[in-house]
Write a structure and sequence with these properties.
The complex is a heterodimer of chains A (about 200) and B (about 280).
Chain A lengths: L16 E2 L4 E6 L4 E6 L6 E7 L9 H8 L9 E3 L5 E8 L13 H8 L9 H10 L12 E3 L22 E7 L3 E7 L15 E2 L1
Antiparallel strand pairs in A: 1-10, 2-9, 3-8, 4-7, 4-9, 5-6, 6-8
Chain B lengths: L7 H25 L14 E7 L4 E6 L4 E6 L6 E7 L9 H6 L11 E3 L5 E9 L4 E2 L7 H8 L7 H11 L11 E3 L2 E4 L5 E5 L5 E7 L3 E7 L15 E6 L9 H4 L2 H16 L1 H4 L1
Antiparallel strand pairs in B: 1-13, 2-12, 3-11, 3-13, 4-8, 4-12, 5-6, 6-11, 7-8, 9-10
The chains are: A alpha+beta (about 200), B alpha+beta (about 280).
Chain lengths: ~200, ~280
């Protein structure tokens, strides 16, 4: 399922390109819309959301999938907090396949997945720690995130593996903030699996 | 020997080949592995503590490395939500996304590992006597799921239990994280819909072995996707047993390349923290 934006001529208050492998963050006021564009295609954009006024209320991947009865994020998905309140809603999605159960890559998990030689490669949890620190967040504030444009099919027998991304250059999602939210993003630096076509690319907000 | 490729295209081809190779090796080793048969009772080990958790209630505890936690679901009607932390550094905690990704599956059974967010093993599934009927996806029950299922407020739920459990461990809401639900099967359809796939039979059980110093919280509440309209979970018994040295061919430690690498990381941490771990 995909749905294009209903915004006819967006006039953004902020229009920013996020280089490959880097992090970014923004506070959205309730009702504001964040469009995330996969400029070159097949680029995972790891995203975490917090109540901007009280970050101990944060995105809950399990509540989000349970509430919608579906394992993947797409148009119409309500991104639910640990207090069961909507943080944001996906109001447009031209791609149609976004993961949340798999969470973010880290230096440490890379060693288990791909070997000890991958320990010192940049990873999304490094980006989240770095970006979160600007907002007073620490490691215990990181929870399972959303991976926009990352394709992780779960088979009926439980088998789960990251597959080739299906996003084309220019695909986007739009999030409408349902409260004031802090958004952390990591333009995923992973090269060891297909989430970025094995080579990180640019994304834009 | 790993060499950094010179161009993006060379890199992509190199990394893709290695990823496919890792996936194929994991699948073939998995197919060749032979798990120990499920045990109906705890085998060996001195019982240190046992506790019955009534329907709707919770429990917390601390395990030393190697100590075992056996959860017995005598009626088959219980669902037990689990969260866990490194007792010496609780910012290190259960990570269900890593637990699935690093084992290429959301299914937990004998030999599966519960991973921390630091590439280490928090606990191993030493014995699964519940046919892999466990869930990494659907999370805790809460006021909303109770209201939907039972049509009224006031019954206990795992979200509330975990807040209480965390408080008793000196932790807070910030330390809570996505949980594992034991004794509850959930399946994803090809379209991605999450479906309830049932409870195990009566007299089911699961036994975990702590691989790091472990703080844990358990909650015995109905699973949020269980369609049973009556709030009627069975009680569970929790038994803590003294550590016994794992054999050299320990199934949990040797089942996969990923497990071997994860235990390298885990053993290195234990060696570096030996005094505190004792």
């Amino acid at each position: 399922m995909s749905a294009v934006s209903s915004l006819e001529r967006p006039s953004p208050r902020l229009d920013q390109r996020v280089p490959a492998r880097t992090s970014w963050s923004v506070v959205l006021r309730q009702g504001e819309i964040l469009r995330i564009v996969d400029l070159e295609g097949q680029q995972s954009v790891d995203t975490l959301l917090y109540n901007a006024d009280d970050p101990s209320e944060r995105y809950c991947a399990q509540r989000t999938v349970r509430r919608q009865g579906k394992a993947y994020i797409g148009e119409g998905s309500i991104l639910v907090s640990t207090e069961n309140r909507p943080l944001a809603t996906v109001i447009a999605d031209t791609c149609g396949a976004h993961d949340t159960p798999a969470g973010a890559c880290s230096c440490e998990s890379n060693t288990v997945r791909f070997g000890q030689q991958t320990r010192f490669m940049h990873a999304c949890r490094e980006n989240f720690l770095f970006e979160g620190a600007k907002h007073g967040l620490a490691k215990r504030d990181l929870v399972s995130n959303i991976n926009f444009f990352m394709n992780v099919p779960i088979l009926p027998d439980g088998t789960m593996a990251i597959a080739d991304g299906v996003s084309a250059p220019g695909d986007y999602v739009e999030l409408r903030a349902d409260m004031d939210v802090l958004v952390l993003v990591s333009n995923c630096p992973q090269v060891n699996n297909p989430c970025n076509g094995f080579g990180p690319r640019r994304s834009a907000w | 020997v790993f060499e950094v490729p010179e161009t993006i295209e060379q890199g992509a081809a190199h990394y893709r080949a290695r990823y496919e190779d890792l996936r194929a090796r994991a699948a073939s080793r998995q197919a060749a592995s032979r798990a120990p048969a499920p045990r109906p009772d705890a085998a060996g080990g001195v019982v240190l503590q046992s506790q019955v958790i009534p329907a709707g209630w919770y429990w917390t505890g601390r395990l030393r490395v190697g100590q075992r936690l056996r959860i017995v679901n005598a009626t088959g009607r219980a669902s037990v939500a689990f969260q866990g932390w490194n007792a010496l550094e609780p910012s290190e905690r259960l990570n269900v996304g890593d637990t699935a990704k690093l084992q290429w599956t959301t299914r937990l059974t004998t030999g599966s590992l519960l991973f921390s967010d630091m590439g280490r093993v928090l606990a191993s599934v030493l014995d699964d006597n519940a046919d892999g009927r466990h869930d990494l996806l659907a999370g805790t029950s809460d006021e909303v799921t109770n209201q939907l299922r039972f049509g009224r407020l006031g019954q206990r739920h795992s979200h509330g239990n975990f807040l209480l459990a965390a408080a008793k461990l000196g932790l807070s809401q910030r330390d809570l994280h996505p949980c594992v639900n034991f004794f509850s099967a959930v399946r994803a359809t090809p379209e991605g819909a999450l479906e309830w796939a049932g409870s195990p039979r009566p007299a089911s059980s699961i036994e975990l072995r702590a691989e790091l110093p472990l703080l844990f919280a358990l909650s015995n509440c109905p699973h949020p996707l269980d369609p049973n309209p009556t709030y009627d979970p069975g009680e569970v018994e929790v038994v803590v047993m003294e550590a016994t040295a794992p054999p050299s061919d320990d199934f949990c430690r040797t089942r996969s390349e990923e497990a071997e690498r994860a235990f390298e990381n885990t053993d290195a941490w234990i060696a570096a923290n030996m005094e505190a771990v004792r």
